[in-house]
Amino acid sequence: MFKIIRRRAIHLALFVTVAAVPCAASDVGLRTPFGEVIVRNLKIGQTYSLYKLVNLPLRLVNTGDASLDLRIDTILTPPNEVKVGYDAIPSTGWVRVERSSMTLAANREGTTDVIISIPNDKSLLGRRFQADIWSRTVGGRGSYAVGLKSHLLLHIDSTPPTEEELKKKYVDERVADMDFTIMPMDGALGAVPLGRKLDLRREQRTLIKLINPNDRPLNFRVRSIPVWESLITPTDGFEAAYNPQWLTPDAGVVKVAGNSIAETSLTLDIPDEPRNRGKKFLFVVSFDILEQKIPTHVYYRLMVTTAA
Fold first, then answer.
1. Whether the Cβ atoms of residue 27 and residue 1 lie closer than 8 Å to each other
2. Assigned domain for 156 exists
3. Distance CA 149, CA 140 (A)
4. Contact 306, 192 (CB under 8 A)
């Protein structure tokens, strides 16, 4: 039986330049927490969904400020890149992603399930294989292309599956297929007072619109999260807020009717301490649909400059 999965890399930063002229209008960034993953005790003749088994879809985050068109493929690992003790998978059919292409707006996260299919071949028993997943930008002539290579290490169990295990062979291939948008994607506050609650709706007229273009009503979860969790990198002299709980949503869940728009806001309360004065903090608010089996996150960035 499938037993354990282990992540060894938090994110990759492999950037590949394929065009001579860089994009000067925006910063291009792509990150994933799916760096190197080990999957143990795989049975021959079985098909596995990483999301279904261990809640581990392939997540891709656009940390730049322009939309990205992405292509995702399984590739055969070159012989000089195969890890010691492993063989490259004989065929890319062993590993596939459910969404081979997607478009990510700025601050947007996309997800896809990763499906592993091991042939029913006894010569594979006890062996280890490496597969690579290549996620990269496409199109956009005259701009940088960005690519990430994720490593999937497969450990085949040394014993064949039982008849009962063979009968249970299936994959739940439902994926996140509902879309939504928030507006705006970013906010900025200056000379923020410390030591008191700041109602951003009332005092700063800060509103975030949730746009639900789907026919069905949806419930959106709203959370202030650590910046590292979003994979967004602070820029322009900002640093990740020490405590994301200084920023709280007006509501933890916002219900939006089908083909409708709803509004929400935030409350900010930064303690009046010397280390917080005259600082530039980045906060990240995550929005996702509770009804989605594989959640897709959209991030709102709030840049806060505190009073000296």
1. no
2. yes
3. 20
4. yes
145 and 34 belong to one structural domain = yes
Structure tokens at 6: 């282990």
Q: Are 154 and 41 in contact (CB under 8 A)?
A: no
Instruction: Name the band, by pLDDT with cuts 50, 70 and 90, for residue 167.
Output: low
Who's near 94: CB < 8 A, 6+ residues apart? 74, 116, 117, 118, 119, 129, 131, 154
Query: In whole numbers, what is the pLDDT of the chain averaged over residues?
Result: 83
Residue 217 lies in a domain: yes
What is the amino acid identity at position 143? S
Residue 273 covered by a domain: yes
Q: Taking the model in full, what pTM does it have?
A: 0.67
pLDDT value of residue 287: 94
Structure tokens at 251: 């509501």
What is d(CA 160, CA 157) in angstroms, rounded to the nearest whole number?
7
Are residues 189 and 138 part of one domain?
A: no
Whether residue 198 sits in one domain with residue 130: no
For residue 74, the cross-strand partners are: 133
CATH code assigned at 153: 2.60.40.10
CB within 8 A of 20, min separation 6: which ones? none
How many C-beta atoms lie closer than 10 Å to residue 100's C-beta? 12
Assess whether 188 and 151 both reside in one domain: no
Q: Which domain holds residue 60?
A: 5-167
For residue 123, give every residue at least 6 positions away whose Cβ sits within 8 Å of its Cβ, in sequence order, or none. Answer: none
Q: How far apart are CA 267 and CA 247, in angstroms?
A: 6
Three-state secondary-structure class, residue 206: coil
CA distance 49 to 164: 18
Please enumerate in sequence order all residues whose Cβ is within 8 A of that of 174, keeping only pairs 6 or more positions apart, or say none. 293, 294
195 in the same domain as 115 = no
Q: Are 155 and 42 within 8 A, CB to CB? A: yes
pLDDT in tens, 128-147: 999 999 999 987 655 567 78
Identify which has the larger pLDDT, 269 or 147.
269
